[in-house]
Amino acid sequence: MPLGLAVACGILGVVLAVARDGWMAFFFAVAVSGDIAVLPLLCLVILPTWLLVSRAPEMLVSPDPPRMTETTAG
């Protein structure tokens, strides 16, 4: 597997999973890998990947709920 393709697919997957924006993931993958030859393959890879993550719940970090301690438990 060519290194440019591996880097582009990794970036595509991470940006797509976090941001859920297919165009942004596509362009970041090509820009960071620096290999324009990966464009046709990324066009094939992005559609099923985007369909998988578009229905998944958002990746949000929520604060922990307050914990019950012995003094507050009564």
Give an overview of the whole structure.
The chain is mainly α. It is 66% helix and 0% strand. α1 (3-19) packs parallel to α3. The longest helix is centred in the N-terminal third of the chain and has 17 residues, at 3-19. It is elongated and about 65 Å long. The model has no long low-confidence stretch (mean pLDDT 83).
Concise summary:
The chain is mainly α and 74 residues long.
The general outline is elongated
Content-based structural category: mainly alpha
Largest sheet, in brief, is: none
Question: What value does the average pLDDT take?
Answer: 83
Strand content: under 5%
The number of helical elements comes to 4
Radius of gyration, taken over Cα atoms and rounded to an integer in Å = 19 Å
**pLDDT < 50 runs, ≥5 residues:** none
**Quick one: how many beta strands?**
0
Straight-line distance between termini: 61 Å
Residue share in helix: 55-70%
Q: What is the ordering of alpha helices and beta strands?
A: HHHH
